[in-house]
Amino acid sequence: xxxxxGTMVVQAFPNLAPAHTAVITLTWALVPSTxxxxxxxxxxxxxxMGRALRPVENIRAEFADITAHSLQQRVPVPDSDDEVAxxxxxxxGTLDQLQRAVGRLRTFTSDASHELRGPxxxxxxxxxxxxxxxxxxxxxxxxxxxxxxxxxxxxxVTDLLLLARLDARQPLKLQPLRVTxxxxxxxxxxxxxxxxxxxxxxxxxEAILGSGTALTRLFTNLLDNALRHAHSTxxxxxxxxxxxxxxxVTDDGPGIPEPDRERVFxxxxxxxxARTRSEGGTGLGLAIARDIATAHxxxxxxxxxxxxxxxxRLLLIIARQDQTVQHVAAVRPKIGRA
Length: 338
Known about the structure:
Blueprint lengths: L1 E2 L2 E2 L9 H48 L18 H50 L6 H29 L7 E3 L1 H12 L5 E5 L7 E3 L1 H18 L4 E7 L3 E8 L33 H11 L3 E5 L9 E7 L1 H7 L11
Helix pairs in contact: 2-3, 3-6, 4-5, 5-6
């Protein structure tokens, strides 16, 4: 600035003290507030997560208490329609399947023990009686009876081993084969003098993917079952559709009552009219047949007779070759009247 006496420099300095005081005051106010706010947010987050995960903890705690002896228990399903509820429903569905599987296993074990105990008890009693009076025993008759009991035991054990392999889903050795030709060979080799009539389509028999050994066992079980109950004749019909091969085995026997048409495929099931154990089979024939059908991607069912004369009618449906490739899988089926 110019003045009469010369140049004068003027400097002005703001007073920062009030601002400095305000910053310090604000800092001391915000630090505790921020800390409290962080703690509040953390608590609210912990509380919200706890409420959200409480159903999961309830499911975990209930599931931890479930053992092989308490499979009837189920995990709680929350009211919320979310992923946790879906998880609980899925776990309960799995427990339902597990309970049914364990129940079938216990029943199967009990039935197998009972079936094996019968011939063993009879065999033991015969041998004990013969040994008690060795000079009076007719050893030829005793040997024949013991052989018959042993053969029955062998049949039961063979069927049990086959069912075990099917339950284990061991893959079958599949190859293209013609079912009509397989049936003709089976009838010629095993039933040359039995009253079995084979009726097939006039069209050429198209190949399906299958195991010749397994399907032969399936047809043998069906035919043995039908011949055991038939009065005079067993008929086997083979037909085709665009997508399926159909084999129908019928007999002119007493038939299967409608309420029992599914139960006959249970293991060791014999209907009231299935005669005695000595006259009947092992009770596993239809169970094995259905397992083999399922392993080929097919179905085996007991259907209503076509005529009023009655008789049993068993229907086997297997997908044709192009369909069989997509469906063949060894899956755990239900397991007959045999």
